[in-house]
Amino acid sequence: IISLSGAPGIGKTQIAKKYAHDHIKEYAIIWLINADRNIELQSKKLAEQLNTKVLDENSKINIDTNNDYKIMERTKDILRNIDKRWLIIFDNYNKLEDIKQYIPYN
Fold first, then answer.
1. Cβ(17)–Cβ(33) under 8 Å?
2. Which of 14, 59, 103, 105 has its CA 20 to 30 A from that of 76?
3. Which pLDDT band holds residue 42 (cuts at 50, 70, 90)?
């Protein structure tokens, strides 16, 4: 986990996006999550991308449920256990505690 901190408008998001762009070939998936918006819904979109680009048919995440929390938890579980590198960028949060429950770590 790396955290960029500083006053609004100094370029933290641009630094993170530049890193992601420069290292895109090193990761199976790169995803930006805006902590100012519904993180569970954004996790569902991440799950769709994992299903499309990373997971085989037997590992796919069920995104047909209306339970965004379950999708988010399954997505975190997949990220914790896949044998591929991934990069998730959380943007616009104030404290780690604000996003801690969404971070897929053991």
1. no
2. 14
3. very high
Which residue, 87, 93, 83, is CA-closest to 22?
87
How many Cβ atoms from other residues are within 10 Å of residue 15's Cβ?
Answer: 12
Name the DSSP class of 96.
Answer: H
b/e map 36-59, b = 16+ CB within 10 Å: eeebbebbbebbeebbeebbeeee
Q: Compute the half-sphere exposure of residue 59: CA atoms within 13 Å on the CB side of its CA.
A: 16
Nearest to 32 by CA among 81, 82, 93: 93
Residue 78, classified by CB atoms within 10 Å of its CB into exposed (0-12), middle (13-18) or buried (19+), is buried
Q: Please answer whether residues 10 and 34 qualify as being in contact, where contact means their C-beta atoms are separated by less than 8 angstroms.
A: no
Average pLDDT of every residue of the chain = 92
